[in-house]
Design goal:
By secondary structure, the chain is mainly alpha-helical. The protein is 64% helix and 2% strand. The strands form two sheets. It has a two-stranded antiparallel ribbon with strand order 1-2. The protein has a two-stranded antiparallel sheet with strand order 3-4. The chain starts with a helix and ends in a 5-residue tail after the last helix.
Length: 483
């Protein structure tokens, strides 16, 4: 067996083991880099570490640190409140509000699972309150996160664009983002009309319960009392949060960042945290939230032309400045950096760099190019990305599969930009699978009596995307020869 084939088999083994055994894929990849590099290739430690992606490490740490602060001081909750209130109590628009909010979070740099971990619990609260199907709300949150996931500021976008840049391939970060965004918006409309969105049309809540088109109470709707039971402000209401049980008897709710309110938390894979008291709605801006909003705007301005500042350093600098304004709230934010995702990305990329030094990347590209059917080979690559990503990490797939496709792209047999877009979309829209982190978060936050049903529905939808997405993206982006 050649060393090139052996290194590919090791990469496949990483994904298989991490899928079926509770071992972190990033740690496995670093171990594989050490063992294969040292004992098979004879490389020293300095050579092994030369493949460590310090730039991606900095970006992942910076943006997840910043968004941990934004969640902890209530900025994210305030944005959700403002957008829900802006729709004037129109129930049919509430799923779209959560689509937009999650897209904004991931588009500004939040890791996709982290954005879903933040928004899904709030979305499911609104789902219960207004009789929106959990499947619909969950898919809108997932599609929203994926829609923003390939912006030039995002983790997905950064990984993809850096691979393109490092290999001197023609790329278009803006086109990648727009194509992914439009694709997921279309998916959002399909989900809306397939999974109960039409039943929500015409229903409103002006603060005193659901009303149908004629202004009468909607049958089967949730009365205003349920809003009080689930807590939070009703869209179009007075702007004051309802007492969700956290306030002293006869008094007002405790401050948003009161440690007594925020003691009970549970962790998820990304280490982002979820409050146990989702019923408190943030309805106003304080100094910390204003500073955080300014920081997010500054980040968006600083990292695009003509300034072109580094995303990681800029995000960390803004996070540190925010921490100066609210040290008590911010002291735990470092522990909420998405360390598992950091380890995953850095481990996979470090091993892929070893494969590149070995020559595996060029060898595999030559094999694919030698198939004699470039379009068919491109379709196979998209299917591989979709199938593996449905069970494993999308970030890991993007870090591993796009580099493997580089030699094939360099042959010019297919449009480079088109194949990169098709591969990126095919590998990301399958995150609705309940076996992926995003799908699992939606299942975990669904009402307990519907959790099994949501799991089965997401499994059907997710695996339909495994089949449909590669074919559609191949037809739209690869066959016409984009790039």
């Amino acid at each position: 067996m050649s060393l090139e084939i052996a290194s590919i088999l090791v990469l496949v083994a990483l994904f298989v083991i991490a899928t079926f055994v509770s071992v972190h894929m990033g740690a496995l990849a670093l171990m594989a880099t050490f063992l294969f590099g040292t004992f098979v290739l004879g490389e020293d430690v300095d050579t092994l570490l030369s493949g460590f992606p310090a730039d991606l490490f900095l970006i992942l740490v910076g943006v997840t640190y910043l968004f941990a602060l934004a969640k902890d001081n209530g900025t994210v909750d305030w944005i959700v409140h403002i957008l829900v209130k802006a729709v004037g109590g129109r129930i049919a628009l509430i799923p779209w509000v959560f689509f937009v909010v999650t897209a904004l979070l991931s588009g500004f740099g939040s890791v996709v699972p982290a954005a879903i971990a933040i928004i899904a619990p709030m979305g499911m609260g609104f789902s219960r309150r207004y009789g929106i199907r959990p499947l619909l709300m969950g898919l809108m949150v997932i599609n929203g996160a994926t829609a923003g996931g390939f912006s030039p500021l995002s983790i997905f976008g950064t990984i993809t664009n850096q691979v393109v840049e490092r290999n001197d391939l023609p790329g278009s970060p803006v086109l990648l983002f727009l194509a992914s965004f439009v694709f997921n918006v279309i998916l959002g409309f399909i989900c809306f009309f397939l999974f109960g969105g039409r039943d929500l049309l015409g229903k409103r809540d002006r603060g005193h319960g659901l009303e149908d088109k004629g202004g009468a109470g909607a049958e089967g709707g949730v009365a205003a009392d349920s809003g009080a039971a689930s807590g939070g402000e009703l869209p179009g209401g007075s702007g004051e949060p309802r007492d969700g049980g956290d306030s002293p008897r006869g008094g007002s709710p405790a401050p948003y960042h009161d440690p007594e309110r925020r003691a009970a938390r549970r962790s998820v894979q990304t280490t982002m945290v979820k409050d146990s008291d989702d019923d408190i709605t943030v309805t106003s801006l304080d100094r910390n939230r204003i500073v955080t909003l300014i920081g997010l705007v500054v980040l968006a301005v600083m990292v695009v032309p003509p300034l072109n500042q580094d995303v990681g350093f800029t995000a960390i600098s803004i996070a540190v400045i925010i921490s100066f304004f609210s040290p008590r709230i911010s002291k735990g934010a470092v522990s909420k950096i998405a360390w598992p995702t950091v380890l995953l990305i850095c481990g996979i990329v470090t091993y892929v760099e070893l494969m590149e030094r070995l020559g595996t990347i060029d060898w595999l590209g030559d094999q694919v190019a030698g198939m004699g059917a470039p379009l068919f080979a491109a379709l196979i690559i998209c299917f591989i990305g979709a199938v593996v990503s449905a069970f494993a990490s999308t970030t890991g797939i993007l870090g591993a599969l796009i580099p493997l496709a580089v030699p094939f792209l360099l042959t010019g047999s297919v449009g480079e930009i088109g194949l990169i877009i098709a591969l990126a979309i095919s590998s990301s829209v399958v995150d609705s699978s309940p076996f992926s982190t995003s799908g699992a978060l939606v299942v975990a936050n669904s009402p307990e009596d519907q959790r099994d049903k949501v799991f089965k529905q997401l499994m059907v939808w997710g695996f339909s995307m495994v089949v449909i997405a590669p074919i559609v993206t191949w037809l739209v982006f690869v066959v016409p020869g984009w790039g």
